[in-house]
Amino acid sequence: MNSTPDYKVSQLKKHKTIATAFFVAMALIYIAMEIFLRKYPATWEGYVKAFSEAAMVGALADWFAVTALFHHPLGLKIPHTNLIEEKKKSIGDNLGNFVVENFLNQKTIRPYINKLKVSQYIAEWLEKSQNRQKLIYEVSLIINNILQKSNDEIVTGFIAKKGEELINNISIGKTLATALQYFVDNKEYEKLLNYLLSKAKFYVAENEDIVRARVKKESGILVPGFVDNMIANRITVGIANYLHEIETDDNHPIRKEIAAQLNNVIQQLREENKWHDELTKLKNGLLSKENIQKYSSQIWIKIKQILITELSNQNSKFLNYIDKNIVEFANNLKTDITLQNNIDNWVRLNAYRIILKNTNNVGTLISNTVGNWEGNELSRKLELEVGKDLQFIRINGTLVGGLVGLVIYTITQLL
Predict the structure, then answer these.
(1) What's the domain count of the chain?
(2) Which of 111, 235, 241, 279 is the most exposed, having the fewest neighbouring CB atoms within 10 Å of its CB?
(3) In angstroms, rounded to a whole number, what is the distance separating the alpha carbons of residues 366 and 95?
(4) Does 289 lie in the same domain as 202?
(5) Predicted structure pTM score
């Protein structure tokens, strides 16, 4: 259906013309009957005259009523005409209250809110590759634009300030103790120990020549070479075997000794002031205000460059990683009923709260919008929307008025 302003104007003119044509027709019939009756008195012509006469009255009355809504009839400022323009503030208030009371109440909106299933729509939408690419592209543009226009000094200052607050509010000794305690309790240190033992064992086995050269250097001049070689071999094999024993035996004394030493260090970090003083000096040196500012600047510039590069390349690993995670989320959302219910219930609850919380604001918005329109503009808008249908009132008024006049004339003649 065509809803352009030009089309509405043409339709309004068309129906105004039709309604006016009915009035003109009744006027011509009335004049004809008046002339005819004066020359040739008859019976049926009187009925036609009565019909046309009453029809003209009905047409004029309804023309006045319809016109008075939007304009001053014939430009005459008759009281209670041009009602839309004169009463636009009241119309806005009444329209706002009508919408709020009849459309935005609990009883009306609850059935629609309960039918919301956003999760299913989101899952189906995200499943389509073109939608994901569009989403990622738009978000990338926004983030890229923010990064490009960001003030590096302000961001760096913010990072430095928060970093300094964090460092000043934490105890390095206790923090290190907690981290070490985690590694000891979960035996994470043994992974590092096993790695070092494996590398050390391999290094010793591969560098027997170094051991042999060292033994020859330290032995006497009278010691035969084969003896030095045998001693070097024994030393190499012995060290390698010993490292292998530590590596394969979870209860080896060396392992227990390392764990005991780590626990001792943890206890010292938590209780002894010596560590506190040393760590404070280290913190004041490496983590001074100037250094934090420098580190913050370097970190931010590096992160910014990486993000801009990754966001500018549609085939970057970063964007592909995001796309992969979106696909996983969509699949989970489509199959996980609990997740669907959680999302849908959250959306319904918050939509319900927001709508009810802002119903008065909606009414005020409608009222202010209508009230702030220019009077002529408001009248024109409403006339274009409903004026065409109101012309049928003029047409009906013409016909109904004529019929009423005919009935009255007929009863008069009968009496």
Answers:
(1) 3
(2) 111
(3) 7
(4) yes
(5) 0.47
